[in-house]
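in:
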């Protein structure tokens, strides 16, 4: 051993012994009961991707876009997170006319993506009830083409009488009506993105109580809405399901939803914030059974009503 290496060895040895003595002195000051509670060995390393792969997943609220007209980009991300099926739609853009030409074009995009990935996508239509006849005609066309539900945006409030014929049609079809919720607090500041006729939780509650036979999905609890207000508003309305999607995932959202809504009416969804959508369910204080319900079973049970469930 060279002089240089010997010095390194001795220096390291002294430091090690000094550290052990310091640790022993520190432990001597710790109460015996506290020492008994210390783990005997380090906790096992947490493997996040094992957890991600563990659960089957149906994303109940996803979108496709005109800049990726075949849906491949969505499938790519879904594959990374082991999301096997996604309910897709293409709502009309904020500030648009929302006329039949616009919503038919949006639905055609969804159908093209569904045709490309028929085993991965569940297509949903969009409408504007301000155009009553055209909307009802479009429902028939889209159902014949294989669509399984409805995604609405902010053209008409959910409890507006213009929606009644559409809701009644979807009762007959036994399909889910997914409704966008206004971004902001229960008393939101309306702007071009969230006009005065955007729905808030009280509106979907009123519609759901009027039509208890219908099935409603309140969109993106993690999307910037007043999530605590939303959970409290829908807690006693059993035909409203709540999707947990969104990019604004504060720590208590899932816990609050579990408290007021319960494990049987919560739906896994991403609204294309895929990593957040998966992550905050894995991070929440849920049992294995509860995660399975939210990730897969609850939405699949709704699909069973129309014979489109995932096997």
């Amino acid at each position: 051993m060279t002089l240089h290496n010997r010095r390194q060895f001795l220096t390291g040895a002294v430091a090690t012994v000094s550290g052990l003595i310091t640790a022993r002195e520190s432990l001597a000051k710790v109460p015996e009961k506290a020492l008994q509670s210390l783990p005997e060995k380090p906790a096992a390393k947490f493997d996040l991707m094992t957890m991600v792969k563990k659960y089957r997943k149906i994303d109940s609220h996803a979108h496709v876009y005109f800049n990726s007209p075949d849906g491949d980009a969505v499938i790519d991300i879904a594959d990374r997170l082991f999301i096997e099926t996604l309910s897709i739609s293409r709502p009309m853009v904020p500030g648009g006319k929302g006329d039949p030409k616009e919503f038919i074009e949006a639905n055609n995009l969804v159908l093209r993506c569904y045709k490309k990935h028929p085993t991965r996508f569940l297509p949903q239509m969009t409408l504007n009830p301000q155009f009553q006849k055209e909307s009802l005609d479009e429902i028939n066309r889209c159902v014949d083409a294989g669509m399984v539900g409805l995604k609405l945006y902010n053209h008409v409030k959910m409890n507006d009488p213009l929606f009644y014929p559409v809701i009644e049609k979807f009762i007959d079809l036994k399909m889910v009506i997914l409704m966008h919720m206004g971004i902001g607090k229960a008393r939101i500041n309306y702007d071009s993105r969230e006009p005065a006729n955007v729905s808030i939780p009280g509106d979907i509650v009123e519609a759901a109580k009027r039509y208890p036979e219908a099935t409603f999905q309140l969109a993106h609890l993690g999307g910037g809405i007043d999530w605590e207000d939303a959970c409290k508003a829908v807690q006693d309305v059993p035909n409203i399901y709540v999707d947990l999607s969104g990019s604004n995932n504060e720590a208590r959202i899932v816990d609050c939803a579990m408290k007021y809504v319960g494990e049987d009416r919560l739906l896994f969804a991403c609204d294309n914030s895929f990593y957040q959508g998966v992550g905050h369910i894995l991070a929440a204080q849920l049992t294995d059974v509860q995660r399975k319900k939210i990730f897969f079973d609850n939405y699949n049970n709704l699909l069973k009503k129309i014979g489109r469930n995932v096997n």
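note: DSSP finds twelve helices and eight strands in the chain.
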